[in-house]
Design a protein that fits this description.
The complex is a heterodimer of chains A (370) and B (238).
Chain A: H1 2-22, H2 45-48, H3 98-104, H4 110-120, H5 122-126, H6 130-136, H7 157-162, H8 171-186, H9 199-209, H10 214-225, H11 234-241, H12 274-287, E1 302-308, E2 314-323, H13 328-343, H14 354-357, E3 359-364, H15 366-369
Antiparallel strand pairs in A: 1-2, 1-3
Helix pairs in contact in A: 8-9, 8-10, 9-10, 12-13
Chain B: H1 15-21, H2 24-65, H3 71-79, H4 86-102, H5 108-131, H6 134-166, H7 171-237
Helix pairs in contact in B: 1-7, 2-6, 2-7, 3-4, 4-5, 4-7, 5-7, 6-7
Classes of the chains: A mainly alpha (370), B mainly alpha (238).
């Protein structure tokens, strides 16, 4: 026993000594310097559920696209913009008229010449100026449709002045109109209709508009100055024919609120609420005659897709996209589902969420109905 | 950017420091477990040596016994010596044989029974000696983890009380106490694991040795029985 005990004591002493000397306090954890990485957690809703707005605007409480300037309201317009027709073309930034001016500027000499001219012009200008004002008020109607027939009109000065006045001053047309009198001097036979239009009238018409549209003012000045500059090159004529219209895409829907951050159109957001969805489901459930007495319930599951117009009225025939069959109970089920939709037809749904219910897919499942 | 190294632990975490920081209960548990470990290893070493010796002794005795040497002679050489294992069984049987036979025992049946008894007794004594203290190993193997756990629980209780007192749950406040408490379990396991392993090994060794000695006892008993019968026949004939 002595041998064992002494060996054991010696072993333990050795082990303890080893432990004391080798298993010292562990060194503190050194955390190496790590550059902090900024991590943004982007909810997927910001991609999938975008409300209509302006891409560059800051976030505001109410979503709103870029405000429009035109006051007239176009019915049933979808896209926001300043146009009078609704188009999908996105609004492009306003083209700066400066380069055009610089291109046309090279002959600065005409300007002093123009000065006396414009001095002469104002005198007749004073007279017609009140005229357009009075004229515009009663007839804002004349638009592009009126334009096609300028030939008879130039005869009467008043209508000629009033014509460019209404909201669409077409610079091309103006430029052409400005050009034509000169050409008429050279080639009187080529354009018989505008031949009657006298030069100063054009100048009057253009300058009369000056306070309203600055863009259109410049071509007008050029046009009025041109007659004096005898060296009329081809470039000038081309420049005159170039589209100087302010590039304006976008639709015709009007917006008055301040622009807020958002996409070009509503995507996914603005969903039907559970209540509205439930109301739709209940309405359809009431209209649905469930085919009874069929044991194979699987064939009775039918998915129907239909389109609605803004008033909630059905557009076209509902289409069975899933389930049903060409004969037997499956067909009965499909037909009953289609009939249910047709029977319920004017659906009462919130108009402001039309995008979400323009096309509806409804699953008719008898097992859900009981 | 500032260095983010964790705060230096308030207390040293070396084993000695952990032991010194511990409360007296935990200290006592640790010391007890250390002593148990020492004793366990002492027993293990002792037993290993004893069993190895016993095995050698048995081998040598069997060699001598089956060498054709006269049993009387063998008895005479062994009788005044300290014997172990089979030797002591042999001596016990021969002593009984001599006592009864030389004094002229009448019944061979009684003699046989007495010799068997004597051999059984010797065998039991031998086994007792072989298996002594193995129970301690079993006890340590099963109890030491619990004792260590007790120390740990006490230590963690104390350290939680310290946390409650300091009103600070910083890891550097909590860690030393828990580490010190866990040291008790570590020591408990350190004592228990060798004890369990050694107990299993030593008890199986002991039973093997016992089997061997029982075999010898039976064999020797048979030999003696034959001898008795022969003696009785010759005596009857004489």
């Amino acid at each position: 026993m002595k041998v064992g005990l002494t060996t054991s004591v010696i072993m333990h002493a050795a082990a303890l000594a080893l432990g004391l000397f080798t298993l010292r306090a562990p060194s503190a954890f050194d955390v190496s310097d790590v550059e902090a990485l900024p991590v943004d957690i982007v909810p997927v809703e910001s991609m999938t559920q975008i409300l209509e707005g302006d891409k560059k605007a800051t976030m505001r409480e109410t979503p709103a696209p870029t405000p429009t300037q035109r006051p007239d309201i176009v019915a049933d317009a979808q896209k926001v913009g300043d146009n009078s027709v609704d188009t999908d073309k996105p609004p492009t930034p306003e083209a700066k008229p400066r380069p055009v001016e610089a291109a046309d500027a090279p002959p600065p000499a005409p300007k002093p010449k123009e000065q006396p001219k414009s001095e002469d012009v104002p005198k007749p200008k004073e007279e017609p100026k009140p005229v357009p004002a009075t004229e515009v008020a009663p007839k804002p109607q004349p638009r592009q449709e009126v334009k096609p027939e300028p030939a008879p009109e130039p005869a009467e000065q008043k209508t000629a002045q009033a014509e460019p006045q209404p909201e669409k001053p077409d610079p091309i047309a103006e430029a052409i109109a400005a050009e034509q009198p000169q050409e008429s001097i050279r080639l009187p036979d080529s354009a018989p209709a505008p031949a009657a239009r006298p030069k100063p009238q054009v100048a009057q018409a253009e300058t009369a508009k000056a306070p309203e549209r600055k863009e259109s003012d410049k071509p007008a000045k050029q046009a009025s100055s041109r007659p004096e500059s005898s060296d009329k090159s081809l470039d000038d004529r081309i420049a005159a024919l170039l589209n100087k219209e302010k590039a304006s895409g976008g639709g015709a829907k009007r917006s008055s609120q301040q622009a807020s951050l958002g996409g070009e159109r509503n995507t996914g957001a603005n969903k039907l609420s559970a209540n509205e969805m439930d109301a739709l489901r209940q309405a359809l459930g009431r209209c649905w005659n469930i085919p009874a007495g069929v044991d194979d319930a699987e064939t009775l599951k039918v998915s129907v897709r239909f389109r609605l117009d803004r008033s909630g009225e059905l557009e076209g025939r509902p289409e069975v996209i899933k389930g049903g069959a060409s004969s037997g109970p499956g067909r009965t089920a499909a037909e009953s589902a289609v009939r249910a939709v047709q029977k319920c037809a004017p659906f009462n749904l919130p108009a402001d969420k039309y995008e979400t219910w323009a096309e509806v897919v409804v699953n008719f499942d008898p097992s859900d109905m009981f | 950017m500032e260095n983010l190294a964790l705060a230096e632990p308030t207390a040293s975490l070396s084993i000695w420091a952990l032991f010194m920081q511990a409360g007296w209960v935990v200290k006592l548990v640790m010391l007890g477990l250390l002593a148990a470990s020492v004793w366990t290893w002492a027993i293990i070493i002792d037993k290993l040596i004893a069993y190895a010796r016993m095995r050698v002794a048995l081998d040598r005795f069997e060699q001598v016994f089956w060498s054709g040497q006269s049993l009387e002679e063998l008895y005479r050489t062994l009788a005044d010596r300290k014997t172990t294992g089979m030797g002591s069984i042999f001596v016990a049987a021969m002593r009984e044989w001599k006592k009864s036979f030389e004094k002229g025992a009448k019944s061979p049946l009684g003699l046989q029974t007495r010799i068997d008894k004597a051999m059984d007794l010797a065998l039991t004594r031998e086994m007792e000696r072989l298996e002594a203290r193995l129970g301690f190993l079993a006890t340590i193997g099963s109890a030491a983890p619990f004792i260590g756990l007790f120390g740990t629980v006490i230590g963690i209780m104390t350290s939680f009380q310290a946390i409650a007192a300091s009103k600070n749950t910083n890891l550097s406040v909590v860690a030393p106490g828990i580490a010190e408490a866990l040291l008790a379990t570590a020591i408990g396991l350190l004592a228990a694991i060798p004890a369990v392993i050694a107990y299993n090994k030593l008890s199986s060794d002991a039973s093997k040795l016992a089997l061997r000695m029982e075999g010898f006892a039976d064999e020797f008993s048979a030999i003696l029985s034959r001898q008795i019968d022969e003696k009785v026949v010759t005596r009857a004939a004489a």
